[in-house]
Amino acid sequence: MSPTFRALRIRNYRRYALGSVVSNIGTWMQRIAQDWLVLTLGGGGVALGVTTGLQFLPILLLSAWAGVLADRVPKRRLLQVTQGGMMLAAGALGLLAVTETAEVWHVYALAFVFGVFAAIDGPARQSFVSEMVGPEDITNAVGLNSAAFNLARLIGPALAGLLIHALGDGTSATGWVILLNAVSYLAVIAQLQRMDVDALHTPRLRGREPGALREGVRYVRSQPHMVMILVLVFFAGTFGMNFQVASALIATEVFDKGAGEYGVLGSAVAVGSLAAALLAARRVRVRLRLLVLAGAGFGTALVVASLMPTYALFAAMAPVIGLCSLTMLTTANATLQLTAAPELRGRVMALYMTVVMGGTPLGSPLIGLVGDWLGARWTFAVGGLLTLAGVALALAVYAAGAGGWRALLADVRRVPRTAADTPADRAEAAVATEAVEPTATGR
After folding, report:
1. Quick one: pLDDT at residue 42?
2. In the prediction, which pLDDT does 69 show?
3. 240 secondary structure, DSSP code
4. Tell me, what's the pLDDT at 424?
5. What CA dihedral angle connects 222, 228, 230 and 231, to 10 degrees?
6. Over the range 6-18, which residues count as b (16 or more CB within 10 Å of their CB) and which as e?
7. Given pLDDT bands bounded at 50, 70 and 90, which one contains residue 388?
């Protein structure tokens, strides 16, 4: 099997990836349909920003607690519950839209409910990767997850735009697309049910002990590279990764385009993201240097895109944005998973999810306001400039924690050590291995 797809030799991961592709196509279809529904109901940039913000607000509020939960209960069962909850929320919104009874406040409320289940789902889903494939294939599996997500991102937005246009561009048209997403969650739930539990690398579950969340925060604060990653992805996630909101405003207000052209922009971003994900899947080692360069490239690409004079040139920048943003995220994700102690991985990934997505409730309405006040182009320019500022701040924070700029320059060129590379972490990894080893032969 090609090194790019080596994690697919593992049956459990192969089943998970298949279900994820189907569900992710539906998810991207709903993202386009939901935004178009808000615009159809008379909402503008602020309404789009509020919708996105409400959908991501639970991630800010609940992800840290969800990480403790992910370290405490079987992740496979937890994921089945959260996927079912998101299916119900999508189904309710779709029915309201199809019957043409939907109002903007309905979209707000159901986006928040959807976000609650997504907040609980995120840390469990991120840390479940290492249980399916084991440490030697984590980098590859993270890259393949991103490839599946962005293959869906390539197909979903364009398909949603075409379906909405074919069904009449109205409220009812968006509802049928959202209902298709609700059905797609059955694919993930079914594949999780079919998994071979004995072949999972399940670490010893943590009991109901006090201070679990504080323990996770202390652990992350003690690792300078983790702090640097969280600072960088906070700025990129909060201010830069608002492409759905910003591109909707640019497509409609600057270039006077419709749902089809808006969907194409989402697919164009996915072209670059898919390329980045496949490159990440081939990558055997990750370095912090790649994370910094990708973050800086992402911020620069946003600024350049804001200056494009035509729709075609703007669309041509979209794959560059996707390539840089996805390279940044896969490098951050893989580095954290590889270097986190196994029994703390759920909480580490919860903090990552909180930071990279939890800033959206602040960033999306702010970007929407920027678009309403200064013009749609400024949504990209401001996001890019703040992302570049975040890269600079992250480097300064790391230099302060690592012993100066010389230490920083040396460290960003090295491959980060795994959790088992230090004596203390070796002992922690040994404890986790006692629970993992008997099931590893099932692979």
Report:
1. 78
2. 81
3. I
4. 38
5. 120
6. bbbebebbebbbb
7. very high
Lowest mean pLDDT among 209-213, 345-349, 395-399: 209-213
Mean pLDDT across 401-424: 57
**Residues 399 and 405: beta-carbon distance below 8 Å:** yes
Length of the chain: 443
225-241: buried (b, 16+ CB within 10 Å) or exposed (e) per residue? bbbbbbbbbbbbbbbbb
Q: Where are the alpha helices (DSSP H) in 99-223?
A: 104-133, 138-166, 171-193, 212-221
Distance CA(234)–CA(230), nearest Å, equals 6
Helix-helix angle 311-339:259-282, to 10 degrees: 40
Token couple for 253: 């207000």
Q: pTM for this structure?
A: 0.66
278's tokens: 């496949």
d(CA 70, CA 73): 6
Contact call for residues 288 and 228 (beta carbons, < 8 A): yes
| CA atoms of 225 and 218, how far apart (whole Å) | 14
Neighbours of 187 (CB within 10 A): 19
**What does the mean pLDDT of the chain come to?**
79
